[in-house]
Amino acid sequence: MKPSIDKIKKFFTLEAERNYDDKAVMGGLASILESWEAEAHADDLAEVVIKAVTTRLRDYHRLTPDSRRDALKGLWNRLRQEIGEYGDDDLDTRSKSAPAPPKTAAKPKTETPEDKTSAPSKEKAAVEKESKEPEKTAPAKEESKAPQKRRVKHQPRPKPEGPKAALDAPVTVLDGVGPKNAEKLERLNISSLRDMLYHFPRRYDDYSQLKTINRLEYGEEITVMGNVDSVATRPIRGGKSVIVEVIISDGSGALRVNWFNQPWLTKSLNKDMGIVVSGKVEQYLGRLTMTNPEWEVLDEESLHTNRIVPVFPLTANISQRWLREQMNKVVNYWALRVEETLPESVRKSAKLIELGDALLQVHFPDSWDELEDAQARLAFDEIFYLQLGVLRQKQQWNARPGRSYQISNEWVESQTGRLPYELTKAQHKAISDIRRDLASGQSMNRLIQGDVGSGKTVVAGLAVAMLAGEGAQGAVMAPTSILAEQHLKSFSTLLCGESGPLKPEEIRLLIGSTSESEKKEIRAGLADGSIRTVIGTHALLEDPIEFENLQIAVIDEQHRFGVQQRAALRSKGKNPHLLVMTATPIPRSLALTVYGDLDLTVIDEMPPGRQPVDTFALHPSERERAYALIKKQVEEGRQAFIIFPLVEESDKSDSKAAVEEHQRLQDEVFSKYKLGLLHGRLKPEEKDAIMARFRNKEIDILISTTVVEVGVDIPNATVMLIEGANRFGLAQLHQLRGRVGRGADKAYCLLIPESDDGVENERLKVMTETNDGFVLAEKDLDQRGPGQFLGTRQAGFAEFNLANMMNVRLIEKARREAQKLLDADPELKNPEYSLLHKTLNQLWQDGQGDIS
Questions:
Q1: Which of 45, 355, 407, 746 could form a disulfide with 40 if both were Cys (CB 3.0 to 4.6 A apart)?
Q2: What is the average pLDDT score of the chain?
Q3: How many CB atoms lie within 10 A of CB 285?
Q4: Averaging pLDDT over each range in 37-51, 381-395, 631-645, 792-806, which range is the top one?
Q5: pLDDT score of 151
C-alpha cells in the first residue's frame, strides 16, 4: 500500500474510533491536507483522486457525524479502487465500541422531503460524481424513530498572537474602504471596527446542505458543486438587458444557472472551472434552474455559499456581497483579539462562551448550535450591563440615609376613614409598602405602577400626608398644568379639612401661569416652612426654590420627565424620599430591566363601580355611525373627544389633521354644538383655558391631538373617537381610551383607521378585546420593542441588538449574576473586574445614570 494511502487510512480509522468528532489529528482532518497532498503527488496518485480527498476534507469540520462517516467511507472506497483493493475492509469500528452519534446542527430554513432522511453531504456528492461504484448511503430513517439530536459542544478557538483588537480604528484602515465607502457605511452607523463587529446579521440563509444535481427538488434552497460546461450570453427585453447562461454538471446531471444583467461574469466563469452555487431551485419550461445564485470558485474559502450565510442590514449603494467580504476581514482578524469583558466566574456560572468566539460565530457561524451559543452570549451581555447599571444605582440610593418615619395603624385607619370610598386591597398593599420604606432609615425609591383609574393619586396623597403630619414638606411634580390643577384638588381633599394634617393655605400650586407676585409668596413660604406641600409642573425646577425641610418628592407620569429634571427635584432636599408614578402598564420583563433600580408596587385592581370602556374598530365608511353616537351622547348632556394624529394637513401624509377637521366638523357635522380645538402648538395658557372650558362643560366636543393623552380628568366625557387609529401604538391608544369612562355613565372608544385594511390591524383588534393595560403592554412590547418604553430614562445606553425583552428567563439570569457580583464586590474593585468596570462606565456615561 502506498505510504500516502496507508497514512490517510490510519487517520480515517482513528476518526471512526472517535465517532467522527474531527479530533483524530490536532486541528481537524483539514489540517493534514497540505502535507498529505505533497506525499500523494510523490506517490503518483491520480490527480482526480487527490482532488477528491482535498475537496472533501477541506469542509469536513462543517458536517454532521453521520455525514462525516459517509464521506470517509466513500473516500476510502475511492482510494481502494485506486490501488486495486476490494473486499470488506471497513473503517467503521463503532459497532464494536459505541453507538452511532445522533445527527447534530441540522436546522434547514425550510424542510424538504430530503430533510427527513439523511441529508447528502458535500463528500457524498463528490463520490457520486467521481466513483464508478454505486453510492453507499446510510438507510433512510423514519422520522418518528430518528435518534434524539445531540448538541455539538462548543470548542473555543485558540487566541491568535499579535496586537489586541484596535476597535476604535476607523473603517478606512480596511483595504477597499476609502472615504466614499466609509460615508456609505456611516449611514449604517458604522464608523469604526467596533461598529462592524457589532453590526449583526439580520438573518441567515442555510446553504450548508449539498446535493447532487439529480436529487434537486423544486423550491428548496441548496448548494450544488460542479464543473462549468458552458458559458453564454444573450440579450433580452429587446436588447435592454442581458442574461448570462451557465451550464454546470457534477456527473449525476446538469443544471442551468442564470444571472441577469451581470455580463462581467463571462470573464470570471470559464469552461471546466469547478464552482459552488447556492440559491433557490426554480423551474423553467419543465427544467430545474437557479437564478442569480451566490457563487464561488471551488477552491476558495466558502463565504457566500456552502455554509450558513449571514445576511446583513444594508443601505443604498452597498451590496450584500461587498459588505459580507468586508465583515469577514474584520471578524476573522479581530474578533478573537477582542478582550473578554466578563469575569470567568460569571461566564462559568451563566454557561457562556467567550466574547471573541461569540463575535466570530454570530457573523459566520460554523453551525446552528454555535450560532445559538453566540447569540445567547451577546444577548446576555446587553441585559447584564443594564442590570449592573440599575442595580448599582439602587445600591447607591440605598446607601443614602433617609429620615425614618413610623406611621401607626391608627393614623392610617383615621385617614382612610375620611375618604368617601373604600380603598382596594392593591391600594392598601401600596400604602403598606410606603410605610415600610419610610420606617427603614433609607431613602424611599419606589415606583407605583397602576392602570388608568386604579387610584394611584390617593396612595401618593396619603404618602405626602404621612410626612406632612410629622412637619415635613412635600413636592409633587406633574407633566401638565391641567394635571397639576387636578392634583391640587385631590391632595387638598386628602390633606386639608377635618382631621387632615394641613390647613388649606399650607398647600399651593406653582405652574407657568402662576402670577409673579404669587410665585414670590410661594417661594418665601417654602423657604420658611409655612407652605408644607407644593404641587406644580416644570416651574418647580425653573424657579429658584428652596425648601426648609423637603422630605418627600412625588413625580407623576415619570416617563414624561428626563433624567436631569428628576435629579433637579431631588436636589431640592437632602436625600428626600422619592415616589414616582406611572399609568403606563409595564411588562414584568421591562420592570425587571429598565426600572430595576426601583422598588416596584403594582396596583392591579380597579376600584368598584369603574366600568370598562366598550371599544369598537370601525371602517372609515362607518364614520357617520360614530358621529351619530356622539350627537346622542351630547344631547343627553355628556361630552366627547375626537382625536387626530396631526395638527395640520401635510403634503407628506394623507392623515386627517385637527385644525382642518375642527373647522369641517363645526360647519358640516356638529353645527348645533360647541367645539373646541386643542393641540401642542398652542401656548400653555391657551391649552389651560381650553381645558378649563371643556371641564366646565362650556365645550361639548373637544377636537384634539394626543396632548390629552395624560392627566385629563373629565368625568362627564363618555365618547373617545380616534381617527387614524392605526398610526398609534397600543400604549397610546390605551391612554387615550382612559380619558373617558371616569364617571358613572357608560363610555365608548371608537377606533377608525385610515383605510379598510386598517380595521384588521392587530393593535386595533387587541384594543377591542381587552381593557387590561398589562395585557396591552405585553403586546406593545412584543410588537414594537423596548425603545418606546425606554424614553429618556437610560441616557447613554444603546438599544438592544440581540436581547429579547420578552425573555424573562434571560433577564432574571442576568440580574441574578449582576446582583451576585455586586454583593461580593459592591464597587467592582477586584482587578479581575477592571475591564468590566470600564465597559459598564462607558455604557452608563461614567455612572451618571438616573437613580429615580
A1: 45
A2: 79
A3: 5
A4: 631-645
A5: 52
Partners of 617 in the β-ladder: 751
Average pLDDT over residues 120-125: 35
H or E segment at 523? helix 516-528
Coil vs helix vs strand at 359: helix
**What cell was used for 536?**
406644580
Name residue, grid cell 452597498. 318
Beta-carbon contacts of residue 728 (< 8 Å; ≥ 6 apart):
645, 706, 722, 736, 763
Report the pLDDT averaged over residues 238-267.
88
Helix (H, G, I), strand (E, B) or coil at 641: strand
User: Mapping DSSP to helix (H, G, I), strand (E, B) and coil, where does residue 254 land?
Assistant: strand
Place of cell 419606589: 446
Specify the range with the lowest mean pLDDT, choosing from 148-157, 297-306, 650-659. 148-157
Helices vs strands, H then E, count in the chain = 30, 21
Per-residue pLDDT tens for 5-23? 888 888 888 888 888 888 7
Per-residue pLDDT at 140: 33
Bridge partners of 231, per DSSP, are 246
C-alpha cell at 523: 417661594
Q: Give the integer Cα–Cα distance in Å for 668 and 662.
A: 10
Q: CB-side exposure of 316: number of CA atoms within 13 Å? A: 3
Residue 780: strand, helix, or coil? helix
Stretch among 54-58, 218-222, 821-825 having the lowest mean pLDDT:
54-58
**Where along the chain do the CATH 2.40.50.140 domains lie?**
204-311
Candidate from 524-533, 739-748, 769-778 with smallest mean pLDDT: 769-778
* Residue linked to cell 401604538: 729
Radius of gyration from C-alpha coordinates of the chain: 35
Grid cell 460554523 — which residue?
366
Over 60: is that where the pLDDT of 97 sits? Answer: no
SS3 849: coil
CB atoms within 10 A of CB 104: 18
Note the helical H segments in 353-473: 355-363, 368-398, 409-417, 425-439, 456-468
Superfamily of domain 614-770: P-loop containing nucleotide triphosphate hydrolases (3.40.50.300)
Rounded to the nearest 5 degrees, what angle is found at the Cα of 607, between the Cα atoms of 605 and 608? 115
Query: Of the candidates 130, 27, 118, 123, which has an alpha carbon nearest to the alpha carbon of residue 81?
Result: 130
Kindly report, as residue ranges, where domains of CATH 3.40.50.300 are found in the chain.
Answer: 409-440+455-582, 614-770
Give 429's contacts (C-beta < 8 A, 6+ positions apart).
601
CA–CA separation, 839 vs 668, rounded Å? 62
- Which runs of consecutive H residues, i.e. helices, occur in 604-729? 623-635, 658-664, 684-695
> Cα–Cα–Cα angle for 708, 714, 716, nearest 5°?
135
| Rounded distance between C-alpha atoms, residue 721 and residue 708, angstroms | 13
Name beta bridge partners: 555: 477, 580
Look at domain 204-311 and name its CATH class: mainly beta
- Dump the DSSP string for 656-688: -BHHHHHHHIIIII-TTS-EEEE-TTS-HHHHH
Q: How far apart are CA 539 and CA 554, in angstroms?
A: 15
Task: Give the SS3 label for residue 119.
Answer: coil
Distance CA 822, CA 346 (A): 12
pLDDT band of 845, cuts 50, 70, 90? low
pLDDT tens digit sequence for 604-662 = 887 776 778 999 999 999 999 999 999 999 999 999 999 998 876 654 555 678 888 89
Q: Which residues touch 395 (CB under 8 Å, ≥6 apart)?
A: 822, 826
- pTM of the predicted protein model: 0.60
Whether the CB-CB separation of 313 and 188 falls below 8 Å is answered with yes
Domain at 409-440+455-582: CATH architecture: 3-Layer(aba) Sandwich (3.40)
- Grid cell of 800 as nine digits: 438592544
User: Which of 174, 180, 172 minimizes the C-alpha distance to 332?
Assistant: 174
Reported confidence tier of residue 165, pLDDT bands at 50, 70, 90: low
